[in-house]
Amino acid sequence: MDKQWKANVYENNRGVFAVFPELCKGCGLCIEKCPTHVIEWSQDLAFNGYPTVEPRIEGCIVCGTCQTVCPDAAIAIYRHDGKNPPAAEPRTTAAPSR
Ligand code: SF4
Ligand code: SF4
Known about the structure:
- By secondary structure, the protein is mainly β.
- It has a domain at 21-79: Alpha-Beta Plaits (2-Layer Sandwich).
- It has two helices and five strands.
- It has helices spanning 29-33, 65-69; strands spanning 8-11, 15-19, 39-45, 51-55, 75-79.
- It has a three-stranded antiparallel sheet, with no helix packed on it.
- A hairpin with a 5-residue loop joins strand 3 and strand 4.
- The chain is globular, with a radius of gyration of 14 Å.
- Bound molecules: iron/sulfur cluster (2 copies).
- The site of one iron/sulfur cluster has 14 residues, from helix 1 and strand 4.
């Protein structure tokens, strides 16, 4: 059976922002890179005990930057116009070859 990740879901008239606290490590990269500065720390906790994030959803333009930069694929953005940003690709931690 596939694992069902818990999602905190926020929606405005442009689309949906979903964050998965069980994947988020609270690194803050999405907060740093959001062009409209609408992501902030949440009262909800990430898997490691750090705060996860949440958007002030009314100001989110569903650009997908947060989804793209998150190193752990912990954010998913869905646009109501169907023009969804590219899906996040989890990075590997493999050591570089010599
Ligand atoms: S989709 Fe864009 S505007 Fe919305 S929270 Fe993510 S980076 Fe910010
Ligand atoms: S970039 Fe990803 S892992 Fe880092 S705080 Fe944002 S959602 Fe969490």
